[in-house]
Amino acid sequence: MASTVSFLHTADSQFGTGFGTLPPQVADLKRTSQREGFSALVQHAIREKLDLFLLSGDVFDTAHPAIADISFVKKELERLETAGVQVFVIPGNHDSSGPGSLWDQYGPWPGHVFLSPGFTSVFLADQDIEIFGMGFDRSHSSDNPLAADKIVPKTSRSILLYHGAWQNFGRELTRDYPFSLADIEKIPCNYIALGHYHAYSVVLDRPDKKAVYSGDTEGLDFSANECGLRQAVQGEISPEGQVTIKPVPIKSLLMEYLELDVSTYTLAGLDHAIQEKADARTLLDVQLTGIPSIELFREIPVIEQACRHLFLFFRIIDRTVDVQVNDLQKAQTYQGLYYRALKDKLAKATTEEEKTAIRQALQIGLAAFQ
Ligand SMILES: [Mn+2]
């Protein structure tokens, strides 16, 4: 009789990424953390004696990663195989397969890497489970291979590794192997280990079938999908084919983003909102919008200085200078008149110097009206 099969699923580490929006020293810390986070997942799979380690694409950032990144990943995967955790890998759009790809050049790889452009499978007789996957062929990635009914498991339990774009997210309808929820519902596998979207997202959650994006292992920048806790997926498939999963937190350096409309904050309130995020392993990007009070306006340059030590990295982007106030477009008030007069001046300004001066005048003036 088959026993329970356990697995760890991760994706999108993108080793070799430049973390280009960060200062070089901070980017270095992110690179170190990125490796530590991945190693910790490997260690977790070994310690918990899991059966399978699933890597759903984009483990590398580019088609030509540095040798150091290749050796690192290989060593970690070898560690798993040596400990008896079977490794399954698919390439993604960043590290796609095909003749002459990094997978060909630097092989053999520990475990099994799916390289053929169509679905193939590996049957694990001991565990009575079949693992499906395919290579990532950039020249055909507008296709939807899931819709073609090519996955026909020869046993009652199966897993699919897939790197592609879920259409329900409303974007990328024509690229990166797009698929719909209906495609996923049709696939006769118990677990679909998805890669490509960087935020942990459960696409389908049924007792006998689950499809999950694990998300990446280290937040790459301050965009929404990269902010907050990073997680992998640990799961089990019972002899009857029931699937249970739980997220495994990854100890990454946290990316966080705050947009604060300063029209509604006092200085103390603003301070409090920032302090709530205070953490030595957090990188915080704060965007200030709206019109500050004159009190707050004077303090904005000071806040950045005062809060820097609370974070690994802290940055205020002052968008209050780009002030755009719909209420003032037509208001017959001193404030409205002032706003329109300066906006008009700004539109007619010809040099950058002049524009900067007018933006500041607008900012200070509106702050005074507040
Ligand atoms: Mn991708």
From TrEMBL:
Record's keyword terms, sorted: Hydrolase
Gene3D superfamilies: 3.60.21.10
InterPro entries to which the protein is assigned, alphabetical: Calcineurin-like_PHP (IPR004843), DNA_Repair-Maintenance_Comp (IPR050535), Metallo-depent_PP-like (IPR029052), Mre11_N (IPR041796)
Pfam short name (any one): Metallophos
CDD domains, sorted: MPP_Mre11_N (cd00840)
Regions crossing the membrane: none
Record-annotated Calcineurin-like phosphoesterase domain positions: 7-199
Molecular function terms from GO: hydrolase activity
UniProt keyword annotation of Repeat present: no
SUPFAM superfamilies: Metallo-dependent phosphatases (SSF56300)
PANTHER family tied to this protein: COMPONENT OF ATP-DEPENDENT DSDNA EXONUCLEASE, PHOSPHOESTERASE
Protein name listed in UniProt: Calcineurin-like phosphoesterase domain-containing protein
Organism whose genome encodes this protein: Candidatus Wirthbacteria bacterium CG2_30_54_11
Taxonomic placement: Bacteria, Candidatus Wirthbacteria
